[in-house]
Amino acid sequence: MLAIDNLSVSVEEKAILRGVSLDVPNGQVHALMGPNGSGKSTLGYVLAGNEGYAVTEGEVVFDGRNLLEMEPEERAAAGLFLAFQAPLELPGVNNANFLRTALNAVRRARGEEELDAPAFLRLARAESRRLHFPEDMLKRNVNVGFSGGEKKRNEILQMAILRPKLAILDETDSGLDIDALRIVAEGVNALRRPDFSALVITHHQRLLDHLVPDRVHVLSAGRIVRSGGPELARELERSGYAQVVADAA
Amino acid sequence: MNTELISGADAFLARYRGLRERLPGDRAIRDAAAETFAAAGLPGRRDEAWRYTSLRALADSTFEEPLIAVSVAPDPGPMPDLPRLVLVDGRFQPDLSTPPAHVEIEGFAERPDFGRLPDARQPMVALNTMLAEDGLHLHVRQGVDAGTVVLLSLAIDAHRPIAFHPRHSIHLEPGAKLTVLEIARGQGTYLHNAVGEVAVAAGATLTHIRLQQESAEAFHLSTTFAEVAERGVYDAFVLTLGARLARTEIHARLKGPAGAVHLNGAQLLGGIQHGDITTVVGHDAPNCASRQTVKNVLSGRSRGVFQGRIEVARAAQKTDGYQMNQALLLSPQAEIDCKPQLEIYADDVKCSHGATVGELDPDQMFYLRSRGISEEAARAILVRAFLAEAMDPVTDEVARDLLEGAIETWWEAQAA
């Protein structure tokens, strides 16, 4: 699904990622953990196509295609989804219209028929209900006046509607209470199929209790310093990053 | 054939000398206007009110008379299916018009009060008073809800620059209601120098929506004087999309208590276009509210101007005034000039104003694109969102569809 090979990225001449290699096979959920500033969010942004980052080395193959040559919207159409750590507010943009525009853009690119407004609303309402979102979130402006938790849930709603092949969740769990956390995990679990994969960026074991990863990777100072099974997340929770990073050095 | 090489103000004065005997209405008023215009000339940078809008290109051109007869009915463009009053090259065309049922219509130039405007000293108003040949007077009787009427101005490509100076007025008696959708379109090079007078009597409501889609070579200058009596509402919106140079100047005075004036607008400009929205809101009576939200979307080398003055007289206690001007610059060569002015002589008032200039937010752009939306569509979404605050008060569905369709067309033309 996703094959990252020796990826190096810098921002304004400053190296953030230094030769990251990571494979997320079809149908698997991988967790990416690591201390603040280790480059986790940068990896998410680069994979989604943010132009503020310069790839200096390496390549990324997504579903058989050279990801780094694709525009952000092409990546979305190809099935990549990034749940933002800090979702943007879009004053004056209605949430339902935004979602429908996005879904239809993606459907067009995938050669599928567009949904008209009633068909879309049926879908959006059904997904909202399934994810326990208040229906008025569809009527409001995108993320404007949303609480931190509501913003994160809106990301999951977008993911549920766009049905990606690869979801990258960038600290979607931070700031969520236990119930919201479970809902987010359910949202991801609902998408799990043999051709769906997820890369979950998190600091906490909690989300991984609900969303059991196949592999856990630790990113430190722009490098993957350790990879392991789900037990690695529990070890990190117990002993902290410092120990793991020091052991790896 | 006149072989004199005269242009600008002299050419207009020469035209007046030639037409003087044939023009309708009070000749003394026209002569006085001609005197004012001769003394002032076309406004230039030395005039404080015209500091940001140069009429140099206008002064360098010589404009001729429009053709008298319209041989072929011009294509009006997208138009709501409503009663309409059509002017071609500034002249009313009864054959192309379908008059509304509850609005009384008269030719303006024949009216006895023609030319008696509060500020006839302004050069462009004086020019209009001097040369106005036609125009319409719309009148709605007491308590009548007259619905919506389209006031359409078309210019035909005369293959030479022409000028026309229509003079309109709209009077609403107490408790009356009217929505006017004023649309200006055309082809070729021309000067459309309109002056309008609006009187909203007690408890009456005039909704005045304007869509300016003149040709890319046109000069569009429009000056409106509105007076609002107690509990009256003048609810105006102007969308500037066309013309090489445009200025929409609105003077609105709240003459009675508890009246309201809304002067919202948007300018979407590209290329070398210049668009100016100038407003003066006068609070002469207590407990009145005024709201102005003006948005500028500027691409290419275009230039936007907003000048807004709020005057609060000593008697106008409990005034509630708000003014906001915002610009979104889509190119590094685009430019906005903004001049807000507050003149407050009352002590118990709430008046606020603000101005912002910005570009499209790259993070918002990335967010939209990361959801599969193309760069161009994302830009369109953010521009519409930017316009929303100014457009939202336009609740009339027909007007809204018309404006949104026009913005869509503008956007497609920009993308092409």
Secondary-structure element pattern of chain B, one letter each: HHHEEEHEEEEEEEEEEEEEEEEEHHH
Question: In percent, how much strand structure appears in the residues of chain B?
Answer: 35-45%
E-strand count of chain B: 20
Distance between the termini of chain A: 30 Å
Rounded mean pLDDT score of chain A: 93
The amount of beta strand of chain A, in percent, is 25-35%
Rg of chain B, Å, rounded: 21 Å
In CATH, what is the homologous superfamily of chain A?
P-loop containing nucleotide triphosphate hydrolases
Query: For the report, how would you describe the main beta sheet of chain A?
Result: 6 strands, mixed
Q: Portion of residues in helices of chain B? A: 10-25%
Low-confidence stretches of chain B: none
Helical amount of chain A: 25-40%
Oligomer: heterodimer
Tally of individual domains of chain A = 1
Radius of gyration of CA atoms of chain A, rounded to a whole number: 18 Å
**Cα separation of the termini of chain B:** 42 Å
Describe the protein.
The complex is a heterodimer of chains A (249) and B (416). By secondary structure, chain A is an alpha/beta fold. Chain A has one domain (2-248): P-loop containing nucleotide triphosphate hydrolases (Rossmann fold), CATH 3.40.50.300. Chain A has 8 helices and 12 strands. In chain A, the strands form 3 sheets. In chain A, strands 6-9-10-3-11-12 form a 6-stranded mixed β-sheet, with helices on both faces. Chain A has a 4-stranded antiparallel β-sheet with strand order 2-1-4-5, covered by helices on one side. A two-stranded antiparallel ribbon of chain A has the order 7-8. The two termini of chain A are 30 Å apart. The model of chain A has no long low-confidence stretch (mean pLDDT 93). Chain B has 416 residues and is of the alpha/beta class. Chain B has one domain (8-360). Chain B is 20% helix and 40% strand. Chain B has 7 helices and 20 strands. Chain B has a 10-stranded mixed β-sheet, with helices on one face. In chain B, strands 3, 4, 6, 7, 9, 11, 13, 15, 17 and 19 form a 10-stranded mixed β-sheet that branches. In chain B, strand 1 and strand 2 (91-92) form a beta hairpin. In chain B, helix 2 packs antiparallel against helix 4 and helix 5 (362-369) crosses helix 6. Chain B is globular. Chain B starts with 7 loop residues before the first helix and ends with a helix. The mean pLDDT of chain B is 92. At the A-B interface, helix 2, strand 7 and helix 3 of A face helix 5 and helix 6 of B.
